[in-house]
């Protein structure tokens, strides 16, 4: 057999295998979206595929531990998939995602962007891209600030159950940093309710007078909140229209970063 003929034959086989691969993924998606109660006949009907095709694919997928067949004949996802999931999650890092995103996206280059995580009743900054516009406050990695006063902190606190808020802040509320700082847990609760409805948080001079910060949250593949992200600018450079526009942008950016962390929500979907 000539080299050309052999190449053509291999390519032909590859093309024949592509539909099988697509159908296997359709089966996985169908099973993943069910409660693990689908049998072969139900999968066949659900995907409108030939019975012989589905049975052949199911046999191979069970052999490879991609699917597991229960004693009642139904199928559920198998343990082999966890190897792929762990491999993906091991490569994902929110700081790297933050850095890579803003290395390419320069739409907010005139604003300082920060990334923070909750540590008790404080936030710790783990990522920062300071702008060249002077703010009077330089964010740096490792900086700690009381969570109730910061945009990232407010956003992260808004995702906690009330019982956790009481345990964290009920006995000792942080001393205010400025005259604008929220002064009590009851006052903070009211603000957090507004944040949940609005989808983004605002620190209006609570950390440093004259600086306004607007934040949202980033989620991982499971939907769990893992970090807060915020943009900062001078209060004198902001208007209500600019604040609302930046709030929408932070929701969108947080959604895109959440996608990089494995969440399946749309890039412009609110993540709060």
TrEMBL record:
InterPro entries in the cross-refs: GAF-like_dom_sf (IPR029016), HTH_MetabolicPath_Reg (IPR050707), Tscrpt_reg_IclR_C (IPR014757), Tscrpt_reg_IclR_N (IPR005471), WH-like_DNA-bd_sf (IPR036388), WH_DNA-bd_sf (IPR036390)
Record-linked Gene3D superfamilies: 3.30.450.40, Winged helix-like DNA-binding domain superfamily/Winged helix DNA-binding domain (1.10.10.10)
Keywords recorded for this protein, A-Z: DNA-binding, Transcription, Transcription regulation
Name by which UniProt lists this protein: IclR family transcriptional regulator
Native species: Aureimonas ureilytica
Keyword Transcription regulation: yes
GO biological process: negative regulation of DNA-templated transcription
Record PROSITE patterns: HTH_ICLR, ICLR_ED
Limits of the IclR-ED domain: 80-263
Superkingdom: Bacteria
Domain HTH iclR-type per the UniProt entry, residue ranges: 18-79
GO MF terms, alphabetically ordered: DNA binding; DNA-binding transcription factor activity
């Amino acid at each position: 057999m000539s080299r050309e003929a052999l190449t053509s034959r291999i390519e032909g086989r590859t093309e024949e295998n592509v539909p099988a691969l697509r159908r296997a993924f359709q089966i996985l998606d169908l099973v993943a979206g069910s409660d693990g109660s689908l049998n072969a006949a139900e999968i066949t009907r659900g995907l409108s595929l030939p019975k012989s095709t589905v049975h052949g694919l199911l046999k191979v997928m069970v052999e490879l531990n991609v699917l597991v067949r229960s004693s009642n004949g139904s199928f559920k996802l198998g343990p082999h998939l966890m190897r792929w999931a762990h491999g993906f999650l091991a490569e994902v890092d929110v700081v790297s995602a933050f850095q890579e995103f803003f290395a390419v996206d320069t739409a907010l280059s005139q604003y300082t962007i920060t990334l923070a995580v909750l540590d008790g009743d404080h936030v710790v900054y783990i990522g920062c891209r300071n702008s060249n516009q002077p703010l009077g406050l330089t964010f740096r990695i490792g900086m700690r600030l009381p969570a109730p006063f910061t945009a990232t902190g407010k956003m992260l606190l808004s995702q906690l159950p009330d019982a956790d808020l009481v345990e964290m802040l009920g006995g000792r509320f942080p001393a205010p940093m400025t005259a604008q700082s929220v002064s009590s847990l009851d006052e903070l609760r009211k603000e957090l309710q507004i944040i949940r409805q609005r989808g983004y948080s605002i620190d209006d001079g609570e950390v440093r007078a004259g600086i306004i910060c607007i934040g949202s949250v980033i989620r991982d593949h499971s939907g769990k909140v893992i970090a807060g992200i915020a943009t900062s600018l001078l209060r004198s450079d902001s208007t209500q229209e600019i604040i609302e526009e930046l709030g929408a942008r932070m929701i969108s950016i947080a959604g895109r970063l959440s996608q990089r962390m494995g969440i399946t929500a749309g890039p412009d979907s609110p993540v709060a």
